[in-house]
Amino acid sequence: MNLTIDVTNKEHKSVVSLSGEIDAFTAPKLKEELLPLTKEEGKTVEVDLNNVNYMDSTGLGVFISALKSTKEHDSELKLVHMQERVHRLFKITGLTEIMNIDSTVQGGI
Amino acid sequence: MSTLKLDLENYKELLKEYIRTKDEQALYQAEQFSKHSMQHNISPEEIINIHVQSLQEIYPEMPADIQASMNFLLETMISYGLAYQEHQALREKQLELKSELSVAANMQKTLLSTNKPDFDGIDIGAISVPAKQMNGDYHHFVQDQEGSLGIGIADVIGKGVPAALCMSMIKYSMDSFPHKRMEPSVILESLNRVVERNVDSSMFITMFYGLYDPKDHKFYYSSAGHEPGYYYHHEQGEFSEMDAPGLVLGVTKDAEYPQNEKQVDPGDMIIMLTDGVTECRQGDRFIEPEEVLEIIKEYMHLPAQEMVEQVYKHFEKLQDFQLRDDFTLVVLRRDV
Questions:
Q1: Nearest CB partner across the interface for A64, out of B155, B202, B245
Q2: From 3.40.50.2000, 3.90.1150.10, 3.40.830.10, 3.60.40.10, which CATH number describes the B114-334 domain?
Q3: Between the N and C ends of chain B, which has fewer C-beta atoms within 10 Å?
Q4: Which residues of chain A have a CB within 8 Å of the CB of B185?
Q5: pLDDT for B103-145, tens place per residue?
Q6: Do A95 and B201 touch (CB under 8 A)?
Q7: Does residue B45 contact residue B80 with C-beta atoms inside 8 Å?
Q8: How many domains would you assign to chain A?
Q9: What sequence ranges are listed for the domain STAS (chain A) (predicted)?
Q10: Is A108 a domain residue?
Q11: Residue A34 burial by Cβ neighbours in a 10 Å radius (0-12, 13-18, 19+)
Q12: At residue A108, does pLDDT exceed 50?
């Protein structure tokens, strides 16, 4: 399975739109793209998960390292449009308590 | 050099023979020649070279264009030959790694082995199947000094060798805890500090820890972001989720793990698993947790060990079933 990563950079914000599956095969690629973004002070990194319907625990690992990195570099990580199946994973692992997650899935219009 | 020379003579004769008779026998011998060349690490371009030389000897009048085309072929084969050599070297290296890995896997089995205890009044079943060579799941039984049974079940995120090494660390820190009374919340809090200090930032561990006290038949449990277990109420014939909030190990230093308790009645069952069980897939379809419970129900009449083995076999038999993650299932049942 594949993962497409699209990064749009604005002044203080990067939007990372993902589409596909995040698993042991695609996670390293995601980590490579995502981590450098979190190393810029004052930056908000918004990850759009609207088109991600499968993530395994390796994917969680990437977001945990990203979160740790934002704390070190004074930046911010935001996960938006998270699908229910993926959200379950964040909930079980207790990460919903410590991460900025907006799980409203984008509607029709 | 003399063997090569001999080979050249040999090849020339074979070629001559074949051109004259078009005989299968000569082709067979050509095959032998090629095998022999491989054994002696003779590169493909060397064989072409032998072919060119033989041709020149057989047809001294060979047109210059054909001659030139042969040189062209020779040049082409040189880079092919180099790539082939590299490929051979990698294959050898791969075999070497494979055997080292299987040594490591065996060592891991020894290091992490746990004995399923014989515990009066409780029937225990446990199965753990790695998706790859090394297992990133772990389960552990320990009896504390007050006679209670402790059960830990854990999943290292990140698969393969690093995960397996990490598991050994967990096991040895657990062994070093005082064995007086293994309170789940205390154990998870201590492990969290160990993992937070020692493990790479993208690696983390989920763990469920339970303690069964046979004196009052109470089960105490805490979870560090682990896949929730299930509780089977014998009298009602119903399952319920053993939800226990708690953050995965290794994310923040000061995570706390609230402890829950349950009164275990005769025939009740505690089911602990890893996400390898709930992340099973059949083709493109996920297997839902309810399906896992239905299968457990189907084999519930069996002794606990047979039951967990049958549940695994059931999934293994499904068409297009792929084990994407390590699969661990542990069941405790209070005797009726």
A1: B202
A2: 3.60.40.10
A3: N
A4: none
A5: 887 887 787 778 888 888 899 999 988 777 767 788 888 888 8
A6: no
A7: yes
A8: 1
A9: 3-109
A10: no
A11: buried
A12: no
